[in-house]
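During the no-cost extension, the postdoctoral fellow (Dr. R.K.) reprocessed legacy sequence entries with the updated structure-token encoder. One reprocessed record is reproduced below for audit purposes.
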Amino acid sequence: MRKFLLGLSLHTQSHRFFAGVTKPSASMMRALLARDERRDSLVAVVEDRVIGHAMAFRDGVDVEIAVVVTDEWQGVGVGSQLVRTLLRRVSGAEWLAMDVMGDNRKVLAMVRRAWPDAIMTIESGSVQVRAELTFAEQGSVASPLTV
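Re-encoded structure tokens follow.
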């Protein structure tokens, strides 16, 4: 996972973490991979190489998610597949929340496609997304990755 994070471009790191990640700490690694009654995480792997990561934090009927995909795998559905899989695993959640950098047009376009009624508010250069989970993440995309 450390190798995956360090292999992301500064642009991709900034879109996910809102800053560059030069040396992922042990506590950061634990937080990214935590799984318990409120938290979940997934990695997408191709040939023993991590190409994507998604995580969720559940607070009552709300679930906040974060996703990042390695640069060379962006735009082919890995992020969308991670989101769908993650949301299927979070039972009982009614509302999705995420913070997206204002210039992250790919993710904002994905949000608009998946949740056309999502509420998006801009704050300090980022977009806070809140969407009702009624029909989200049905079906899956065929892909050569393991989630």
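The radius of gyration is 14 Å. The first helix runs from residue 2 to 7. The remaining legacy entries will be reprocessed before the final report is submitted.
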